[in-house]
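Our consortium's second objective concerns turning raw sequence data into structural hypotheses that experimental partners can test. To show how far this objective has progressed, the report includes one record in full. It was chosen at random from the queue rather than selected for favorable results. The single chain below, 367 residues long, was entered without modification.
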Amino acid sequence: MSTGTATSYKPKYASISDELERQLAQHPPHKKLPSIRRLMKQFDASQATIDRGLRNLMERGVVQRIPGRGYFTAASTVKDDERLKVDFCFFFKKRTLNNPLYSEISRWMLTEMYHRGCHLNILAYEEMGCLKEFRRRLDESRPDAFVMLGCSKMTFEHVLREMDVPAIHVCPNVWDANSLCYLIDNHGAMELSIDHLTDLGHERIVLLHGQGYDGVHMVDQEERIDAYYDIMAKKNLATSGESVLYGGFSAEEGYEAGRKVLSASPRKRPTAILCNDYNAAGVYSAIHDAGMKIPGNVSVIGFDNIREIDCLPVKLTTIDICLESMLGALSEDIYDLAMGKEFGPDKIRTKVALIKRESTGMVVDGA
């Protein structure tokens, strides 16, 4: 009979769970874990062992699984009065208060920042608002970080710098050499759209832009217009003053612009229209009223991939600005900024993708 002390045995999955928990203690809430494949390589373990180890961590409340996205460190247990404070300010004109993209960004950021242990205060601020009032709001909230969406006045950032509040611009309409900005890859988006149309045989392509909407200059719109002319020239495709037209951000404006471009003679009439998701319904109506069909006579591409386009009678091909990916990276930078990490000036271009649906097709013979 042996009198030695028995050695306790710990399954490999349990050892992996313990080591991962130790590592994750240094991570902020809602930080994505490495992929299963990377974990298999790191721990020299099978997928079944890694899966069991992760289930063990889920039972302990250390990680959570989000279907389709992967495993993340669990939501924060930080008390509300201990949370970092972030002000998320979108700048607007009166007609843009119900912008569905702003609503989607605000909803997503509220959830994302809460999981990261931050309190997010959403402000809607008149684009030409008073600096004194802006300063007063900052004095009241004293945020650890500030995010500006669609800002058109550099003086707002000057106030933030004077008050030593670190800030990030999202889709700004103005910035300087010291700004940290998140910008859409507008040139890449136009390239995807025009390449898709020319692959389908289209040569007469028009752009309905939103530059100058409600008297506001928009960098995104300027970049798309410049990219359109650049890409069309490289493809040796003809353009004129009638190739780029104001189309606004409403169905009414889209209808008027669509009616105008479709009234041209058959040889000059476009076979494809680049618009946006907001005026696309009006463009569709103009095409219908001209006795034409989508995509049989005219192909249409939108921009933003907002949910509202699901109700269009022909599913709209559109540019997806990869909002979830962008906001995930943005929220991580905001958290680091609020924690005191220093960022240099930078212009971060977010991903874009073309979502091909039913509104684009081959050019009809004789078009």
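The partners drew two points from this record. Confidence is low (pLDDT under 50) at residues 1-6. The chain has three domains: 12-73, 80-184+323-350, 186-321. Both points have been shared with the crystallography group to help prioritize constructs.
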